[in-house]
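Consider this:
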Amino acid sequence: MRANFRMQRLFLDAPLAHEAVVEATPEQFNYLVNVLRLAENAEVLVFNGRDGEWKARLTFASKKRLQLALVEQTRSQPEAPDLHYLFAPLKIGRLDYIVQKAVEMGAGVLQPVMTQHVQGKITNIDRLQANAIEAAEQCGILSIPQVATPRKLKDLLESWPRERRIIFCDEGDENKNPLPILSRITERQFALLIGPEGGFSEEERNLLRSRDFVTPIPLGPRILRADTAAVAALAVIQASIGDWR
């Protein structure tokens, strides 16, 4: 069933089932009542990333307490996306952007990777998770990506599962077309790695290219900013070997 974008969607961190009643948090109360001006018996769509999507009816337990009574399931829970998105953190603002776009493009795991030329840093995993949830709310997505703790590139490669191929965007690659390279990938599990604004160091490029589970790809003849490269690469991968096929 297609997503209903005419109704407000809300993430609830609680089990969802027929006739269940979930207490809204103070933040959700403020958003639904004071911002959206929803009244008693108004209906919204809710999801938790596990139990599908449900239609819920607003009821006021008191002037300051709002409850959401589940009426019916509108969509069942789909299989979670399997694409891992590995990225060097950017500065705040642009970091929020790439997290949101990665969720929209079907990333199932968001893994920050610390590289030599990285310019941003991760100080709050909860902020990244909140951005992922907000993107899911706005785009009709039912699965919430896992946000992993930051790891150094070398440590990540040393413990990486060999059955999941890493596709990394190599700005130093002399080719221009990624499609012939992607067409030769036979693994069904893969990850996309996007480097920092300053690019990978030569040492990092050599390290990546030395691993048999890593495939470098170009992204055309132009130099792209890291956030632009992320969206472009995610689109190319999903269209060629991902879930757009």
About this structure: The mean pLDDT is 92. The CA atoms of residues 96 and 127 lie 9 Å apart.
